[in-house]
Write a structure and sequence with these properties.
By secondary structure, this protein is of the alpha+beta class. The chain is built from 18 helices and 13 strands.
Length: 566
C-alpha cells in the first residue's frame, strides 16, 4: 500500500490573505501533494492548513511553507487569541494509510532537524515525536509562548530539541516551531450565548482532561494547594484526551470553549458536545453551536449522527449523507457559517482529488448507457454487484419503514439493527461495482506489457496470473456479500411491516440473481488460472454459495407469498 501522510501546519497569520496565499502556493509548488483545506481565523490571527501526500513530498512541501512563513511573518508584531510561539507555530504529521504513527514520529524528527538545519529555526518535538515524556504535551513545549523564548533558549530542560542558540534578531522574527506526530486531532470551538471569557474558561476547566488547580476552601481566588513535593494539585476534568481554553471572538461577538480532541476513541465529538453543553447549563449558559477548525474525519460525524438518531429512537440504517446531516443539525455545525461536508471531511476531500468518475456516481440512465456501449466494461460482474446492492437497499428500506410504523415504537431498535446491517452490506456491494471493472482493467493492462525477452515474458505471465486471480476473487466477494442480504430480507419478510413484504420479495429475487450472476464471472475467470488447485478451491466455494442462495430464495419467497395471501 502506498504510504500517505497528512500535514497540518498552523501559521501565525490569519488576516493577510496575500501572506496566506504565498505560503500555500509553496505547498502546491511542485504538484506532489494535495492541498485539502486552508482555514484562516481573524481573531486568532492564525491559519490552519491541511495537505496530504507521500512522506518525502509532504516533508519537502512543509519545509518550503515554513521557509515562506519565516520570510513573511514577523512574530515581534504578532497578536492573536490563540497560544503561539512561532511564525509556523506547530507542524504535525498524521498517518493516513500504509504507515504507522511510529513511522510518522521518525519522519517528524527528521523534519524538525531539517527546519533547524536548513532554515535556522529552533524546533521542539512533541506528541509521538517527543524525545522526553514531558514534551509529548504541546503545552509544555509552548509554555510561556513566544514571549518566553528568550529565557528558554540555552536553558537546560527548556531549550529546543534542534537549533538551540541565542535569541538573536533572526530568532526573534521567526520564533520557534513545534514539529510532532499524532493521530487525527479534532480542533473544535463550542459557541456560547455569553460574552464572558471567564465563564468560558470555567467551562473549559470543567471538561478538559487536565482540569483546574485545587484551591483552598474551594474558592476561585483561593490559594493553589500543593502536595508534599510542592507540586500543584489538580482536579481532573471530565473528558479524557482533550485540551481546552475559553476565549472571546471579536469576529463573532461571542465567547467560545476552544478544544482539541486528541483521542477520538476516548472522547468522540458528540460526547464532547454533550458534556460541554451539560457543564455550560450548570453555569446558566447554553452551547448554541459548534465550529470545526480545519478538517474532520468522516467517522466522527457518522458516530455523532448515529448517536443523536438513537436518542430520537430512530433507525441508524440511513444513507451516509442523511446521518451526517443529523450530526450537523444536532451540534449546530452550521451556526456561524455553512458547513459543507465535501469541503470539511478528510475522506471526501481525498476522494475529490483522485479524478475520474466512478460508475456508481453516474445516473441510472448513464450507467445503463455505459453498460450498453461497445466497451466490454462495465459488464456482468458490475451489474451483479449492483443488483446485490439494490437487494440490500430494499431490505434496509423495509427495516427503516418498520422502525417508523405507528404502534411499533417499542421495536425501533430491533429494526434499526437490521437496517444498519443492511446498509453496511449495501455499501460493500456499491464499492464492488467499480472494483469489478477495475479487475477487468488490470487484465487488459497486462496485455500491453512487453514480451520480447524471456524475462519480459516471465514478468508478463506472473502479472496475468495475479490479475486473473484478482478478477476471480472480486466476483466471489460479490457472491458472499449478496448472500448476506438474505438474512436481512428474511427478517423483514417475516417480522417487518406487512405492507412492504413485496419489497422484501423483490429484494430476494435480486439477491439470488446477484449471487448467480457473480458465480458466472467466478467460473469464467477461474478457467484462466494456471494454479488449478487454487482455481478449484475458489470454484468449490462459489458453487456452495450459489446452491445455498437458491434454497434461501425459495424459503423467503414462501414467507412473502404467505403474507400476501391469495
Amino acid at each position: 500500500m502506498k504510504q500517505i501522510i497528512e500535514c497540518v501546519p498552523n501559521f501565525s497569520e490569519g488576516r493577510d490573505k496575500a501572506v496566506i496565499d504565498a505560503i500555500t502556493a509553496e505547498i502546491e509548488k511542485d504538484g506532489a501533494v494535495r492541498l485539502l483545506d486552508v482555514d484562516p481565523g481573524e481573531a486568532t490571527n492564525r491559519t490552519v492548513v491541511t495537505f496530504v501526500g507521500e512522506p518525502e513530498a509532504v516533508m519537502d512541501a512543509a519545509v518550503r511553507s515554513v521557509k515562506k512563513a519565516a520570510e513573511l511573518i514577523d512574530m515581534r508584531k504578532h497578536h492573536g487569541a490563540h497560544p503561539r510561539m512561532g511564525a509556523t507555530d506547530v507542524c504535525p504529521l498524521i498517518p493516513v494509510s500504509g504507515i504507522t504513527l511510529e513511522e510518522c514520529a521518525e519522519l517528524a524528527r527528521k523534519l524538525a532537524k531539517r527546519i533547524s538545519d536548513e532554515l535556522n529555526i529552533p524546533t521542539y518535538c512533541y506528541e509521538a515525536a517527543a524525545f522526553t515524556p514531558e514534551r509529548k504535551n504541546l503545552a509544555v513545549c509552548r509554555e510561556g509562548e513566544y514571549e518566553a523564548l528568550p529565557e528558554k533558549m540555552n536553558h537546560e530542560g527548556k531549550a529546543p530539541d534542534f537549533g538551540d542558540r541565542p535569541f538573536d534578531e533572526e530568532a526573534a522574527k521567526t520564533g520557534a516551531t513545534a514539529v510532532g506526530a499524532r493521530d487525527f486531532l479534532i480542533a473544535v470551538n463550542f459557541n456560547l450565548n455569553t460574552t464572558s471569557t471567564r465563564r468560558a474558561n470555567a467551562i473549559a476547566f470543567d471538561v478538559r482532561e487536565k482540569g483546574r488547580p485545587m484551591r483552598e476552601g474551594g474558592k476561585v481566588n483561593g490559594k493553589k494547594m500543593k502536595d508534599e513535593n510542592g507540586n500543584v494539585i489538580w482536579i481532573p476534568g471530565t473528558l479524557k484526551g482533550t485540551k481546552a481554553i475559553g476565549w472571546f471572538i471579536d469576529e463573532y461577538g461571542i465567547a467560545q470553549v476552544s478544544m482539541n480532541i486528541t483521542n477520538m476513541t476516548d472522547t468522540p465529538l458528540h460526547v464532547a458536545f454533550d458534556e460541554v453543553s451539560r457543564c455550560a447549563a450548570n453555569r446558566g449558559i447554553r452551547v448554541t453551536g459548534t465550529e470545526i477548525v480545519g478538517l474532520i474525519p468522516k467517522r466522527a460525524l457518522i458516530d455523532a449522527g448515529k448517536h443523536y438518531l438513537r436518542r430520537q429512537q430512530r433507525s441508524v440504517g440511513l444513507p451516509e449523507s442523511e446521518i451526517i446531516k443529523i450530526a450537523i443539525k444536532s451540534m449546530g455545525l452550521d451556526e456561524l457559517k455553512e458547513f459543507k461536508p465535501e469541503e470539511k471531511v478528510t475522506e471526501y476531500m481525498l476522494e475529490a482529488g483522485k479524478g475520474g468518475k466512478k460508475l456508481v456516481d453516474m445516473t441510472c440512465t448513464g450507467f445503463a448507457d455505459e453498460t450498453s456501449s461497445e466497451s466490454p466494461a462495465p459488464g456482468g460482474g458490475s451489474i451483479s454487484a449492483y443488483m446485490g446492492a439494490l437487494a440490500a437497499a430494499l431490505g434496509t428500506m423495509v427495516a427503516n419503514l418498520s422502525a417508523h410504523k405507528p404502534g411499533w415504537d417499542d421495536r425501533w431498535e430491533e429494526f434499526s439493527d437490521v437496517a444498519e446491517k443492511g446498509r453496511g452490506i449495501q455499501d460493500r456491494l456499491i464499492a464492488l461495482v467499480d472494483e469489478d471493472t477495475e479487475a477487468f482493467n488490470r487484465i487488459m493492462a497486462v496485455f500491453a506489457m512487453p514480451k520480447k525477452t524471456p524475462e519480459e515474458k516471465a514478468e508478463r505471465a506472473a502479472a496475468l496470473e495475479a490479475a486473473t486471480l484478482y478478477a476471480t476473487e472480486v466476483p466471489l466477494k460479490t457472491m458472499k456479500a449478496s448472500y448476506e442480504t438474505f438474512d436481512v430480507l428474511e427478517a423483514m419478510a417475516s417480522k417487518g411491516n406487512p405492507a412492504s413484504v413485496s419489497d422484501a420479495g423483490v429484494g430476494t429475487l435480486a439477491a439470488r440473481s446477484a449471487v448467480l450472476g457473480a458465480y458466472l464471472n467466478v467460473r469464467i475467470n477461474a478457467a484462466g488460472l494456471k494454479d488449478r488447485e487454487k482455481a478449484e478451491k475458489l470454484l468449490a466455494e462459489a458453487a456452495s454459495i450459489a446452491e445455498k442462495a437458491q434454497k434461501r430464495e425459495q424459503e423467503i419467497l414462501k414467507i412473502v407469498n404467505e403474507v400476501i395471501g391469495d
